[in-house]
Amino acid sequence: MGKNIKRIGVLTSGGDAPGMNAALRAVVRACKYYQIESIGIRQGYEGLINNDMIELGPRSVKNIINQGGTILKTARSTEFRTPEGRKKAYEHLQKNNLDALVVIGGDGSFTGANIFHKEYNVPFIGIPGTIDNDIFGTDFTIGYDTALNTVVEAVDKLRDTATSHDRVFFVEVMGRDAGFIALNSGIASGAQDILIPEQRDSVEDLCDSLERSEESGKKSSIVIIAEGEQLGGVYEIAKQVKARHQEYDIRVTVLGHIQRGGSPTCHDRVLASRLGIAAVEGLLEGKTNLMAGIRSNKIVFTPIDEAIIKHNEIDTELIKVANILAI
Amino acid sequence: MGKNIKRIGVLTSGGDAPGMNAALRAVVRACKYYQIESIGIRQGYEGLINNDMIELGPRSVKNIINQGGTILKTARSTEFRTPEGRKKAYEHLQKNNLDALVVIGGDGSFTGANIFHKEYNVPFIGIPGTIDNDIFGTDFTIGYDTALNTVVEAVDKLRDTATSHDRVFFVEVMGRDAGFIALNSGIASGAQDILIPEQRDSVEDLCDSLERSEESGKKSSIVIIAEGEQLGGVYEIAKQVKARHQEYDIRVTVLGHIQRGGSPTCHDRVLASRLGIAAVEGLLEGKTNLMAGIRSNKIVFTPIDEAIIKHNEIDTELIKVANILAI
Amino acid sequence: MGKNIKRIGVLTSGGDAPGMNAALRAVVRACKYYQIESIGIRQGYEGLINNDMIELGPRSVKNIINQGGTILKTARSTEFRTPEGRKKAYEHLQKNNLDALVVIGGDGSFTGANIFHKEYNVPFIGIPGTIDNDIFGTDFTIGYDTALNTVVEAVDKLRDTATSHDRVFFVEVMGRDAGFIALNSGIASGAQDILIPEQRDSVEDLCDSLERSEESGKKSSIVIIAEGEQLGGVYEIAKQVKARHQEYDIRVTVLGHIQRGGSPTCHDRVLASRLGIAAVEGLLEGKTNLMAGIRSNKIVFTPIDEAIIKHNEIDTELIKVANILAI
Amino acid sequence: MGKNIKRIGVLTSGGDAPGMNAALRAVVRACKYYQIESIGIRQGYEGLINNDMIELGPRSVKNIINQGGTILKTARSTEFRTPEGRKKAYEHLQKNNLDALVVIGGDGSFTGANIFHKEYNVPFIGIPGTIDNDIFGTDFTIGYDTALNTVVEAVDKLRDTATSHDRVFFVEVMGRDAGFIALNSGIASGAQDILIPEQRDSVEDLCDSLERSEESGKKSSIVIIAEGEQLGGVYEIAKQVKARHQEYDIRVTVLGHIQRGGSPTCHDRVLASRLGIAAVEGLLEGKTNLMAGIRSNKIVFTPIDEAIIKHNEIDTELIKVANILAI
């Protein structure tokens, strides 16, 4: 089946992530290497629906490996969630002679491709592009390493002020459903406590931790809080801690969208390059409905249903590491 | 009078700013160079009141030129605002044989030193250390250039997402009374509009600007808003714009405290080094009640009253530059 | 005369510098603002000679303000130094209806424009784009501030190793004729000694400085050496110091071309934006044979002959600052 | 046996690497957590020989997780290679009541510890701290990820100039025996060719690659060359390529020691933290003569002999990735 693939469409979908351009570049160059054609679809599935596509060659993707965001643009398409939208998409896919799709995005984007495949039998392979690292079937998603470093660099700056003023900083980082960013950036930035969605925390425990910190001689602290944590949000948590410890000089910072952008790290560029090539090779070997990922530093393909339904779990060793270091 | 100065106390006060350590290092080494002693006072005026001081030599300040924050720590002392507080401060100053003070901070810190001088005749020279650049008597304050670059790097990351998603980002930057950070970082990050405290703006004008932007073919925009702007805050502004343009995909980001930290830029390190030396030399020449600053790249001393009362004005050329570039 | 200007050609010439794109963007947008046309000339004067030009509008220069290098590319044209080359250039200039030129580059580029003007009476204004800061008529050249920060960040990394191993690092930085980069980056990176072309130095003096450093308790040192210094180059200097002090653990690093690239700093972006607009406004006011620059933070125009012949001098205050800090 | 461990000595040895401080911090805090004492040994094995040690507690290692280099300093001790040196070391070890050692360094440092163990039966665990990633028994060494990003950021800057001037840059990166840095940074920086010690290359092949690049429309190229490559060094290679292609505008850059320094990335900080804790836990469980490493994201212990003798091999998939992307 893969033998008949002569022309691949590639799109980026969902929230943008640093390294999407590197993945796109790899898809396009792998197509050239295997002597097939590659077409860029703009704005995610919207570009299929609106027939907004562009022929891509090796030179069209030059000097983008170091750029954040995605030159194809991305969108969350509501129309593609309707049968009518997908019908239009299929018509344009046929019109453009696309034999298969590479979908760079998160689980929402994969779900769309999966439904599309069931209805129209379009082969596709997904590439995990999201900063949250919450997709099953890969040790790392594209953009995650860059986001971690963005957070850590930001908290390094906050620590200057925290230390100079003997303050407690509560820092909200991204991660609606997953604590990977919070846990790893928290360890790396020397956080006193880290609140993540996967763990039941309480303001009491947090206060205990801050009190221990004070007793051990610390004059300032950083607390990292994932946006998906369950205690009511960073401002509410700060308020409750302040109610118990009015002597604390507390500041809240929400890092926000800066975590999604920026030039990708080396790790994200290499990961994206490998997965982009793997996706093309997979399609040419007749694979479909899979996600290309990395496990133990090897390329692996995971059934897309698994990638969507299952979730990576937080490593309990890391939670222990965080606790030991906060001593 | 300056001839009798044998021992100088140095403190950092008010909000921390990148480059304060570089200024401190310069003060200490200049003291050594001119064969006098230097004493570091911890936590701003609190350290005078609480007799929290440390003898400093050239090696005590090694490898701090590149560090944000202040190794002396800083604080806003409420006690120093009382006659009793200043009395205690003076007693410890005498006890430690301090002949003069170098005060690294903003106008609040200078006001304190000024009152202290009137009461106890303690010679002092101020060094402008604040990211806001709103102190009269110097073209640049220490920390301002670093803050600008922190903002610009952050907005560069946001632009990746803005462009990838065709979004409008409203970004709040520091500047309660002054628009220097907003105006310069706005120009440097290609902002479509910039709202500053010094200018009367309106949501209508902002919407006009965004509409012009759209008509000219722009799909995404950045709007930089100083925290001291007069329209009710970034969230309120975003709400009002959204009310008129529901089709806009708007996101708000408050950069917050990351703007205060970080390793100082080359410019801030050199500026801080020059002002630190100038302050010591000034005291040795018998100067007092002055602020050391830079004008047209030359060291100048400004009467501290002027430095406190007057304010640098926004350059109207820059406002025009911002308008032309937003075309 | 300026009234007749309807179409301006803009080129970047000589060595590339961060901020050239920001200047280009400002030229193009200022042209639009003043309702005239702008044409980009590729590869410096080569593009005039080879008729390699492109119509530019406000959207052609989007998202380049943060990019190093120059999207127009640059070259050192040998053909433009010949009467025949300039004749071809003039023919293509006429063919493209260009009424004036904006030349972004260094003194070599300005010299070319000057000769071209004498022969063909083509109005032009120069914009100083070079990292070396050695052009008379402006306090800062475009790219200089970025280069300084690149050097300082690199030396901050070297200092980690120098300190960890008790080593002496000799670091060569750019500056064939001028010591601005060396002197300022040297102060900002805490150098023990700084060798620049403008000063007569000797290996004896350098050794004295390193010996004093050792006596004062320093275990590691950084020495910054401008490439144009007069003692025979960084490797030779290292060899001679080693001959006298075999106990020193010396390492040499030549920073090289990384100093020319990178995303421009806020300062360079604002400077480039201001000068780009000023150049267009100058031409429209009938000005020619001038360089737009910044003095005391105001736009000034300097006769191009002066800009070429004269040179900014090293501020002796800075040399003293460097000496005091090395105590 | 591990039960009797009450006091652990920790040292950093060999070339410094970013993340060594994070590892040290983790060792010290893990000791506190498990209620034993930790002693820092300065200058690697030299500190044992010269009895240069310091008691460390949780607060002694505050705010170092983000610092490059090593606060304990490091050295390559020649005296420790002699029986006499090791005898002195053992005497001081006994005098300080050290029950075990944690050695943060490379294979040379592990060899020393191994011999020392054979002679004096001192339990130890090694932690791989070197930017080269060439130590068997771990997927990543501490400092490697930071070095990769330093290289990639530097080459990003060079690419600005390469593209603006249509140049070919030959960039030498670290890696005397191993091509990990070259291969991964080469992929991430979009290199046209990558020369590594593990592969037999030739100037012919390199020229072929550059010619193909030109034919495919590329006007500029980056070639990454590991210092341990077999063709005679970057300058010699550049000379030979120039001899065949005089039309190429070639520049050589040797990145040098900047690759060893800098604030560690998030990845290196987390890795170092995990390995530091693992080493202490290992010793407490009675383990010795092992290296703590990470494989497939799990802590593993490898016999130190294996870690010294065996070497990680370059992944052939990555070589293929590099080739495909250079199309």
From TrEMBL, chains A, B, C, D:
A single GO CC term, please? 6-phosphofructokinase complex
Q: Known EC number(s)?
A: 2.7.1.11
Keywords linked to the UniProt accession? Allosteric enzyme, ATP-binding, Cytoplasm, Glycolysis, Kinase, Magnesium, Metal-binding, Nucleotide-binding, Transferase
What cofactor does this one take? Mg(2+)
Q: Name one GO molecular function term.
A: ATP binding
- Major place of localization? cytoplasm
Keyword ATP-binding in record:
yes
> What species is this protein from?
Chishuiella changwenlii
Instruction: Give residues annotated as binding Mg(2+).
Output: D107
Q: Which reaction does it catalyse?
A: beta-D-fructose 6-phosphate + ATP = beta-D-fructose 1,6-bisphosphate + ADP + H(+)
What is the designated name of this protein? ATP-dependent 6-phosphofructokinase
Native organism taxonomy: Bacteria, Pseudomonadati, Bacteroidota, Flavobacteriia, Flavobacteriales
Q: Which residues form the Phosphofructokinase domain?
A: 7-282
Q: What regulation of activity is recorded for this protein?
A: Allosterically activated by ADP and other diphosphonucleosides, and allosterically inhibited by phosphoenolpyruvate.
Q: Where in the cell is it found?
A: Cytoplasm
On the tree of life, the source organism's domain of life is: Bacteria
GO BP annotations listed: canonical glycolysis; fructose 1,6-bisphosphate metabolic process; fructose 6-phosphate metabolic process
- Tell me, in a sentence or two, what this protein's role is: Catalyzes the phosphorylation of D-fructose 6-phosphate to fructose 1,6-bisphosphate by ATP, the first committing step of glycolysis.
